[in-house]
Amino acid sequence: MSSCCCCAIPSASTSNSSLPILPSLLQAKSLSPLHRLPSRIPTTHSSPQCTAQATSTFNSRYLPKVADPFDETPHSKARSYAKLISSHCRSQRWSDVISVLASMIADGATPDRFLLPKILKACSKLRDWGTAATVHGYVITAPLEVDIVVGNSLVDMYSKCGDITSARGVFDRMPVRDVVSWTALVNAYADAGLLDVAQAMFQSMRENGVRPDLISWNALISGFARNGETGMALLLLDELRENGLQPGTNSWNGVVSGLVQKGCFDDALEIFRQMCLHEKPNAVTIASILPACSGLTALNLGQELHSYVIRNGMKMNVFLGGSLIDMYLKCGKSGFAERVFADLENRNVPVWNALIAAYADEDKMSEALDLLDLMQKDGFVPNVITYNTFIAAYARRGRKDEAFKFLFEIIQKGLKPNVVSMNALTSGFHHSGLNDEALDLFREMQLPKSFSTRCSSVLIGMLDVIIQPNAVTINSILSVCADLKLHHFGKEVHGFILRNSFESNVFVSSALVDMYAKCCDMSSATKVFHGMKDKNVVSWNVLMAGWKLFKMMEDFFGVSPTLEHFTCMVDMLGTAGLLEESLDLIRRIPFRPDACLWATLLKACRLHSNYEIGETAARALFELEPQNASNRIVLYNIFAMSGLWDSASTMRNALRDQGLKMVDICSWIEIGSAIHSFKSGDSTHPEMETILAMWNKLADGMSKGGYVPQNIVFCDQGEVDPFTCYHTEKLAVCLGIISLRANIPIRVSKNVRMCIDCHSSIKFISKIEDRDIFITDGCFYHHFKDGTCSCGDKWLRSIS
């Protein structure tokens, strides 16, 4: 099929040599300036701030062209403004809709229930929550909120602005709801990733006698697909058929586009192939699947899809054309992208931005600037994304004056620089070696007045908003700290991360590990690594890079590793499963290994069930700590988990023969005036049967929630010791659930530190039972609520 593409796009031999001809090609296509009224009406991104300007401009130039000068009645004015707003909606000039609305209100006219949905749609497209709230206030005072069409538009608008709480509030106040109302809310919850709530809302719709239509089903199906739940999306497609509806092209499109948005490109292509067996793809399908070709750089498939578009006479709109342009650019065929762009009859700002970015990425700034000029001559107003493209391109090349010039131009145009603008500067400066400028920007992003005085004199007093750094900013700055070995500044950034709750971001945490490792602070690198809840390939790669840097400490940086450094490295290597390397490192260190070092290795052996190296570590500990029974217990468990029951039995007998025993573990809880205590291995409590029945009930609920028992202790012949599942604090918590009213917190004390299994399971229990559970274990004070612990899992880091 790909042969058909040649009639629409240039040959591959010319694809990379045609960039300079684009301006002449565009001129040949007669890109005349648009003389339509909407292109000349001033735009706004915050209507309350520009009402006066929009009103004066509108009244002096444009209103006489659309309103009869002899008819000054409010009704006629409202009708004229309504026509103009409708025109802007059809041409998708959403900012102009808000501008005309400001003029309309200033001129004494008010929107009615037929015009309000169009205005609310413009707010949702612009994500303009402020204007939306103002319009909502008018709706309430009118009152028009009872109108089902206006109500549905409000629900949809708040949903698209990301304010689900307000969307639900409007929905709950609607006296009458139809299938559109329910679908809008289902779609809102699905967009937010709250799939359980979306599905519950869908079920509630059916229980309230509203039959879901195909659009409702599509909203739920695409929601699951967008969140990577491919299997569930396909099950819902089957359920749709069982309910007497046939999946249409839009149903399949929802799955395809959802998977593409999630980045599951291979899955999206597989679903697309299945779709082709049942339905004929339309333009939306092609526009949805082309980004998967872009992500996989699948040029051949992209060309086949382009050929399909031509053969089926599909109209080349901005969405389809934009997807094709993006695909060709991502696949390195800029000449093909240019031809598609030139053939587009109707373009929009994103399409222009895509082509400008292609020129900027290839360092063809002169051509990019020509395109910017042509874009404006064609009647389009550059947005912040357009300017950010130039800022990033110039910053990457170290041309900071030009970068600041475009930042200044954003402000001059009445737009607001965003965090992406600042990230383009910081990452670009770092890339080009302007590290001091990058660090200054990070400091001053939160100090707008000083920003202009230190970075560019032309910006004095212009940047009057605080732009908070995000995860991308932090990663860039940590890279600077790592490259320049700025340990002190890196610690300041670490403080900023903790204060602003960025530590849960795996990429930020990985960058922190990298920074500390490159600054030869292996202890901090290890602590950050162990504190990471979710580790990915990047995390492990950084860890391995830290190992290489450790080897370079003395040779290149003149820093002699201490015993603490070696212990940290054994911990890092052992956690990664490199136990032989850990043992080899211990044997080569210039110090006498202490108990802490061998215990670190033994812990890693238990983690990976390696009995051979574990026995070596344990024997060394037996000599250093002959009275410490815990080392023998750990080795016993390693033998048991490896199925070496004879060795496990021997270790248990040795423990008994030497008269060693663990500290008696005990937990207690106060119920009324009585204190109930539970000792390890003791099952004599009078309510033990009821307590164990409660635990089994909780265990079943936890199992459904994904809980897997940890820290299991084995008996002979591989059977799990059942009582290790009933650690003393668990028994005390179960008694608290049975004996205390639901509104009374459960408070338990324990004489030794909690184990990992108890900590994890009680988090589950607090969520399942909706209870506040307090546990003091002599080391930490734990407040479990809604599935989390107040210690922030610092407990886990401290034992790692």
From TrEMBL:
This is DYW domain-containing protein. Residues 716-795 form the DYW domain. Keywords: Repeat. It comes from the Eukaryota. GO terms for biological process: plant organ development; RNA modification. Gene3D superfamilies: Tetratricopeptide repeat domain. The keyword Acetylation does not apply. InterPro entries: DYW_dom, E_motif, PPR_At4g14850-like_plant, PPR_rpt, TPR-like_helical_dom_sf. PPR repeats lie at residues 77-111, 178-212, 213-247, 348-382, 383-417. One of its GO terms (molecular function) is RNA binding. It comes from Musa balbisiana (Banana). PROSITE patterns: PPR.
